[in-house]
């Protein structure tokens, strides 16, 4: 009887699993809805379908009509009703809801119904768009389902720097379009900086006559060499009519535009146009001037500029920058020194605070609120300021504790000018690589905040700085797919985050990217990892999620290119392994002749069991903690540990903040009960050093998403000596040190195999 019950349980479990897989296979909506239930059957959308709307949803109905026409050639009809008939193919209903931007959607074989208030119906339409097939056909098949959804955060942002390289109105519109498709709702428009002033100001025409043509003047030798740009720059500016056009376009897509006018630093373009704005030097020294002088002329000038900006932009916030101000210049400025004496300011940081507070007072008089980068905390935070935390999280945490609103946009996670993979294989960028996994794993509400303080976190934002981004194809490559991770982490419930599911959904977006002619970076081939193995053959199957992709690969350490022989996926590699192999891949797909390159090293080693009896061992592994300033682990051999203990998962050590570091050494054994092939990896995002039988199997300091590494080992029954070390800090806090599984199977529980 027990056997029969067990069999029934197994069959039931398998059925449930298949049901979950079926749902997963049908729906790849980003961001993940709060609630999604699969229905039975499908709705067939025909070319001449009617989109039923009421007065409030008519603009959204026309938006959907235009989308279907542009992308599928459908000639649908939008009809306005007081009560939309139930038989109408697509019904867009405006209904009141307490939840901002919430919507429900029901797809049945008979019709599609979307209900919500304000932006809610629009977001429901975006979910519907992701359910449409990407292949054009006379009838579009949409899987039946029910969705109930609303955003976690109100600020779901993405920036665009048009100062370093100018982007046209049409290019900006397309950028906003794709933001809207993924329910991102704040477009941060970085309009001014050292390399260009991009917004028309009537009272000060030289800002665009001169300040928008910095690359032109640089070529003539009248401006410094633009050595921080990838090329000679791209000039241009937006007229006020063009600004209004973009604002209207964004409003129709429920996207708010946040304009940024940089001050008091990053102002070289404005100073080049109007030199009297620049910080004066009482020593007479000639140097690059990027700082505004805190003079009455400057304040009047910037108030005039902001008056015209405010007249254009209807939103609540104005961003005034405030970052990377070279405040020491003020100590040589007669104007700033006099200001410090008059206002009893003790340091240049207090001059920064004075400057920001004065601009804040002006903005408040115009019913606007100030947003600034986290440097505006220096010298004292303006009373009503909202802080964008970019230098890590510290500024945002401090501001939230002071009960100021915060947008989290920290390095490295939210900076998309960084490479997306190994920097040697990617276009040039700033900072170390930031992968989509790193973006997705970011949590805007820090554990350091109480629940009440966390309420001051408005949301998060991805940023792109365009010194190294000369054109729109490169821009799209750098921002996507990482922006999809921002969309999900700011919209979906925290407990709904699932990295593996998101990765699968993300790869299913490329049909849409191709439909939109949008140059998102192609995904990597899974499994191209650095491998340590004791096996005599190397076997790997190269699979790829995009149909029609091809791969060129080599095992001699040399990177293939477009001229190398190609093969369709999947590709089976099965070769003898005597010492080491340098695997190189070059993957292409049918998207703007784009390619991605990957590398991996496969090295053969010998791993021997230890001469140790299991009966003499205890569960868990031993660890030692060394609190020190020493960064060389070898120099700690003679030191006594500050702490010792035993653990099954992670060493329970909190990071220190007083200039010291916590080195952790581990020692023990891995117990193998059954001879088989095993895979050993680490759950640390930044890897520890791990040794098996004193052979290095995991190299320290590599990011697991950028340079994945694993040991593929055939292990006999017995115990194997394990050791390792790492620095305990926030990068690995609460992460699992060691992960072991039977190759191709489930992970094993550390408490069953770790011994000491």
UniProtKB/TrEMBL annotation:
Q: Which InterPro entries match?
A: Beta_hexosaminidase_sua/sub, GH, Glyco_hydro_20_cat, Hex-like_dom2, HEX_bac_N
* Keywords of this entry: Glycosidase, Hydrolase
Q: Look up keyword Calcium and say if it applies.
A: no
Might you give the EC number(s) for this enzyme?
A: 3.2.1.52
Gene3D superfamilies per the UniProt record, alphabetical = Chitobiase/beta-hexosaminidase domain 2-like (3.30.379.10), Glycosidases (3.20.20.80)
| Domain named Glycoside hydrolase family 20 catalytic: residues | 153-493
Beta-hexosaminidase bacterial type N-terminal domain boundaries: 28-150
UniProt catalytic activity: Hydrolysis of terminal non-reducing N-acetyl-D-hexosamine residues in N-acetyl-beta-D-hexosaminides
Say which family it is in: Belongs to the glycosyl hydrolase 20 family.
Protein name listed in UniProt:
beta-N-acetylhexosaminidase
Native organism: Mucilaginibacter angelicae
